[in-house]
Amino acid sequence: MRTNAGAFWTTIIALFLGVLVVTQIKAQDVYSRSLELETPSSLTTLIANLAERNNGLRDEIFDLRLRTETAREDAASGKGSLTEAQRQLAQLEVFAARTAVKGQGINVRVDGSFDDKALSDLVNELRNAGAEAVAVNGVRVGPRSWFGMNADRSLTVDASAIRGPWNVSAVGATEVMYVAMTRTGGIIGQFELIYRSTSFSVTKESGLALPSLANPPRG
Amino acid sequence: MLPALLFGLLVSLQWRTQQERSELTVRYNAPLLDAATTLQKEQDQLKADLAQLRAELDDIQRGAATQSTASRDLQAQIEELRAAAGLTERAGDGVVITLDDARSPSVTQANVDKSICHNTDLTDIVNTAWRGGAQAIAINDERIVGSSSVYCVGSTIMVNGTLMSPAFSVVIIGPQDKLLGAFDDPNELRDIKQRRDVYGLGFRVARQAQLKVPAYRGAMNIRYGTPQ
Prior knowledge:
The structure holds 2 protein chains of 2 kinds.
Chain A: H1 2-28, H2 40-76, H3 82-95, E1 101-111, H4 116-128, E2 133-136, E3 139-141, E4 147-149, E5 155-157, E6 160-162, E7 166-171, H5 174-182, H6 187-194, E8 199-210
Antiparallel strand pairs in A: 1-7, 1-8, 2-3, 2-7, 4-5, 5-6
Chain B: H1 2-24, H2 29-64, H3 69-85, E1 90-100, H4 112-115, H5 119-131, E2 136-139, E3 142-143, E4 150-153, E5 156-159, E6 162-164, E7 168-173, H6 176-184, H7 190-199, E8 202-213, E9 226-227
């Protein structure tokens, strides 16, 4: 009798241990990041993003192949490559925010309570939508720019204080950026839920003019 | 006892797996997954091709720059701007931040959101690093430049359009003391530090010498902005 009871309890404990082991393993993996676990909707968005990036890369490769060929021919014929150098310089000056820039794009006006983290997220979202140049209240955002907030709730871009209302201007593909900002569930929609008393408006702009970076970082 | 233990394991596994399958097995996932993987591989190749073309053009330019003073001056400006824009590799001392999902058994569905890393954690870390005087930053070998974005779709994070999963290694080159001061500042990254302390989010800051940050490999895509 004692032997039977012992075997019974040993079996129960073993079953319990088996369940515990699996629970423990699963708990450590409660949030798996595998791409296989993404929903079809997320995968579709990822695919659209990847395809868009790859198209951008292909365009630049195509352009660069032509320019490399021309530069090689110019160099071989002793003409030098001033034109290519000037073109590269112009492109880099825009990319590094070292020159004032003009072009089409959008403006996001934020009137009311806002903070540095949200401003950083907004700029991140604009960059993801292909913004080529961004400025906040006329202060150009550069490759190493950072955002902060003062005690009086004014925001800072690279330590320059900027007071609301804030106008975040971005030069780039107007329609792409406009849709990215205003789509259902997009960043503006999220902001409207979080900052309920703040008004957000996005406008398409045909002739934005952004200044160059005020103090380009050295080193 | 062993059969009972195995039986317990099997019952439990079967129950959990069926629970997951009902949520996750979706008809269209396999082809979509293939497409995403193929596009990511294609992107890696395109970035390698672009880097090679940039190097090729750079060689031609350098050779041609010896022909006149104007060319030499232009080339010097180009090289300075390429470095400033993040188009060249950079080496130096700095700090390395490791950010990872909590790996603790105490993570449950209820607190999972606080236990994992989000794209906004990475943008906050990058913001603090620039504030602390960073000169160059890379997240899992993707250089952060003026056009960089850290984007999140589902549970996948994209940096410069490249798919990534935790753990993240943020390599930051710059003045070590100032950078460590910025990351130690209790007003900085409060949310991340709190989630580390309460939910076991992985967040470590380490001083490190002789770091390397790769050059930006993505497209510049300047199509709409013209210098004034």
